[in-house]
Structures are given as C-alpha cells and as structure tokens.
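Thread amino acids onto this structure.
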C-alpha cells in the first residue's frame, strides 16, 4: 500500500477491534524505534508505509499514532533529544567524568546522524510552525556544561572551557564528516576534542 491518508475503514474500526492501551503503547514504541533506525540509515525520505511494514503494523495504525509525517518526525526527534540529554547523568554515574563525556559524545553523534535523515521535514516543519522549534542547542550545551563542571571538580577536565565552544566543536566534527560518512574519522576527531579538554600536564621538574 502506498503512503496515503488512512482509509475510512481504518478510521471507523469498531471499538471491539481497537487495541488495548498497552498494545497501543507497544505499537507506538515500535513505530518510533523503527522510524529512528530508518532515519539513521539514509538521508532520503523514508516512505511511511515502509516504516509501518518494518514495525509489523498496518499503515492505519501508524496514522492513528502519527497523523502526518511531521508528527512522526517530531516525536522521533523529541524522544532522541530527551534520551541524549538524560544519558549524561547515567554515564557520569558509571564512568570517570572525562570518559563519560567521551561516551556521551558518541551518543550525541548518533543523534546527529538520525537528525540528518529527518532534516528536510524538520526544516519545513520549523519554518511553517507545524513542528515546534526545540531548544536543542541550549539543552545540549547545558549537558556539556554539567559534564565539564563535574570533570573540573574531579580534576580530569579543564575548568576554563566555555561549554558553547565545545558544542560548536562537536557540530564542526559532525558536519565535516557527514558527507563522507566515515564513523572511524568521527571517533578520531572526538578523541581529539576530549584530549583538548583535559588539563595540560605540568612540565617535568616544575
């Protein structure tokens, strides 16, 4: 079935055939996960019926949860951004601050890659107002500030770095490697960023 609005049958299914709340939640989560993988795999527009099929649901189920492509993209973007932001605290609970920051950068890189697959819809939605403009830069910079502060207190990260500068450095890495799609090069550059954030070793004999 091609991507289209749900049919009258889809919209008027008897209440007895409607999924339970738990089933509906599982379907929604499956659609979000499938869409996230699809958007990460290509920068081309992914047909919604392909996402529904890969998620194991009908196109009518997709439209019940996400009436438009913009609604699906907005939901995926919001979920990914929330996960990137919340992952920082979990990483700091498990790892030394500089190591946690480096691991978080890889997670942020994955978010940026998924965002590329939604970029056309996001830009059009933000311009028209059909998709709310998120405070992405502010939230990412706040996470970086928190991780830098924690690292400075532990002595593993420099205390004199502007978090906004780090955000710009990371975006520079992601944008410069996006065209070639070289994961190894991205990782190498992120290693360099973290090295630049570590305190300089005192000269021997001082």
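Threaded sequence (206 positions):
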């Amino acid at each position: 079935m091609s991507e289209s609005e749900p049919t009258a049958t889809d919209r008027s299914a008897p209440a007895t055939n409607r999924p339970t709340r738990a089933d509906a939640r599982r379907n929604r989560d499956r659609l979000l996960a499938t869409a996230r993988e699809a958007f990460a795999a290509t920068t081309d527009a992914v047909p919604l019926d392909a996402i529904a099929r890969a998620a194991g649901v009908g196109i009518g189920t997709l439209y019940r949860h996400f009436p438009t492509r913009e609604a699906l993209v907005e939901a995926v973007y919001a979920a990914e951004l929330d996960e990137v932001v919340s992952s920082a605290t979990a990483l700091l609970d498990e790892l030394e601050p500089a190591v946690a920051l480096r691991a978080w950068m890889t997670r942020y890189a994955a978010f940026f890659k998924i965002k590329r697959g939604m970029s056309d819809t996001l830009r059009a939605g933000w311009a028209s107002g059909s998709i709310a403009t998120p405070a992405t830069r502010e939230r990412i910079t706040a996470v970086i500030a928190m991780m830098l502060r924690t690292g400075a207190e532990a002595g593993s990260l420099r205390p004199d770095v502007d978090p906004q500068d780090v955000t710009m450095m990371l975006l520079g890495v992601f944008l410069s490697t996006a065209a070639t799609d070289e994961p190894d090069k991205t990782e190498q550059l992120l290693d360099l960023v973290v090295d630049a954030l570590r305190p300089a070793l005192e000269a021997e004999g001082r």
